[in-house]
């Protein structure tokens, strides 16, 4: 597959590092960008690494000269950090995405062939008005409760629409030839659990932080209440979902955005699983009002029937398999220096 070239933004982030590994194992050529330098073990797997902000016109000038067939646009400021600086979040999350859609669109036109544009969205696009509504809502479908209360959720929801605009309406308005268009596909991810990396700036981060602290023998103060319940997914499933959607035949992709999920758990249940893996884990609960308020608007469960039906999605990692197998095997090794 050497002729298949992927552009991946945010390559040093949580999803980025695992996705680079998965793509390079498939023999895909990767052009990686990130505002930070990539860890050497990640950079080694890429054909080209460009350091710079996704909002920087100079980066886009370089990207416009490149050839690529698929984009995974992972660069973003996550929810808690976004709430502390909403203007910066808008700049990176919205203007950065708009620029990249424009760049990809120009490259698609020049190449005379479509580019598949994968956008990781989030459960943050949902906004449940209060805890009672959250508990009553059940499995939330793609078109329900789209009233995000955070800037990050609003950014993600708007970028889903921007992608749709570039993929469909812009093409029609501009009478674009069929060959030079963007095939935009978005996934709404729940909180992610990786054995290799800890995210920064997210609100679902209490789960991975708890685990990684326990693996290092460090005490952890959880910033949400024990009864806080949201959906989660193990990182290998998140990568599988992205690749499945990227590779799904166009005829089977019936919508531009899909929910994907694996299991829902309370913070107390995550703490109990963590203590099973690391019996000496020291976990206390000290809710932070800002971060608690964010997570209280996110659904307890999401409905991913559309992804199951349209492109055969199913999670391979249940809650039990995530903790007993994926995390149990990999997270201790990570801190013994066995992994790069
Ligand atoms: C965050 O907490 O901001 C992310 C997300 C759920 O999108 N992990």
SSE arrangement:
Elements: E1 5-9, H1 14-25, E2 29-34, H2 40-43, E3 48-51, H3 57-65, E4 70-73, H4 79-84, H5 86-111, E5 115-122, H6 131-137, E6 139-140, H7 151-173, E7 182-189, E8 191-193, H8 206-215, E9 220-222, E10 229-234, H9 235-247, E11 257-259, E12 263-266, H10 267-277, E13 283-285, H11 289-295, E14 301-302, H12 305-311, H13 319-335
Parallel strand pairs: 1-2, 1-4, 2-3, 4-5, 5-7, 6-14, 7-11, 8-10, 9-13
Antiparallel strand pairs: 10-12
Helix pairs in contact: 1-9, 3-5, 5-7, 8-10
Bound molecules: 2-amino-3-ketobutyric acid.
Q: What does this 3D model show about the protein?
A:
- This protein has 13 helices and 14 strands.
- The strands form 4 sheets. Strands 3-2-1-4-5-7-11 form a 7-stranded parallel beta sheet, with helices on both faces. A 3-stranded mixed beta sheet has the order 8-10-12.
- β2 (29-34), α2 and β3 form a beta-alpha-beta unit.
- The protein has a domain at 5-194 and 233-261 and 301-316: NAD(P)-binding Rossmann-like Domain (Rossmann fold).
- 45% of the residues lie in helices and 18% in strands.
- The chain is an alpha/beta fold.
- α5 runs parallel beside α7 (151-173) and α8 packs parallel to α10 (267-277).
- 2-amino-3-ketobutyric acid (AKB) is lined by residues 78-79, 122-124, 152, 191, 202-204.
- 2-amino-3-ketobutyric acid (AKB) binds at residues 78-79, 122-124, 152, 191, 202-204.
């Amino acid at each position: 597959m050497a002729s298949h070239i992927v552009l991946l933004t945010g390559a040093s982030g949580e999803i980025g590092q695992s996705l680079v590994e998965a793509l390079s194992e498939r023999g895909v050529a990767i052009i990686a960008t990130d505002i930070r330098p990539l860890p050497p073990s990640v950079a080694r797997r890429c054909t080209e690494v460009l350091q710079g902000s996704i909002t920087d016109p100079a980066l886009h000038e370089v990207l416009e000269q490149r050839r690529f067939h698929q984009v995974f646009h992972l660069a973003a400021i996550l929810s808690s950090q976004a709430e502390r600086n909403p203007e910066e979040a808008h700049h990176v999350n919205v203007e950065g995405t708009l620029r990249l859609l424009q760049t990809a669109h120009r490259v698609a036109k020049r190449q005379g062939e479509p580019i598949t544009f994968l956008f990781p969205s989030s459960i943050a696009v949902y906004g449940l008005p209060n805890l009672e509504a959250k508990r009553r809502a059940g499995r939330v479908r793609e078109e329900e409760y789209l009233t995000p209360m955070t800037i990050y959720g609003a950014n993600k929801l708007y970028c889903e629409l921007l992608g749709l605009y570039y993929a469909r309406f812009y093409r029609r308005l501009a009478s674009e030839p069929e060959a030079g268009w963007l095939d935009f596909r978005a996934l709404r991810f729940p909180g992610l659990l990786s054995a290799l990396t800890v995210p920064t700036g997210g609100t679902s981060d209490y789960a991975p932080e708890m685990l990684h602290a326990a693996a290092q023998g460090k005490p952890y103060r959880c910033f949400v209440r024990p009864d806080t319940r949201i959906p989660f997914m193990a990182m290998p499933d998140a990568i599988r979902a992205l690749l499945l959607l990227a590779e799904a035949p166009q005829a089977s992709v019936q919508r531009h955005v899909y929910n994907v999920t694996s299991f829902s758990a309370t913070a107390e249940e995550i703490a109990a699983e963590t203590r099973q893996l690391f019996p000496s884990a020291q976990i206390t609960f000290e809710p932070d009002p800002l971060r608690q308020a964010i997570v209280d608007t996110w659904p307890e469960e999401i409905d991913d029937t559309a992804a199951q039906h349209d492109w055969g999605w199913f999670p391979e990692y249940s809650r039990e398999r995530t903790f007993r197998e994926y995390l149990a095997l990999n997270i201790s090794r990570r801190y013994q220096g066995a992994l790069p």
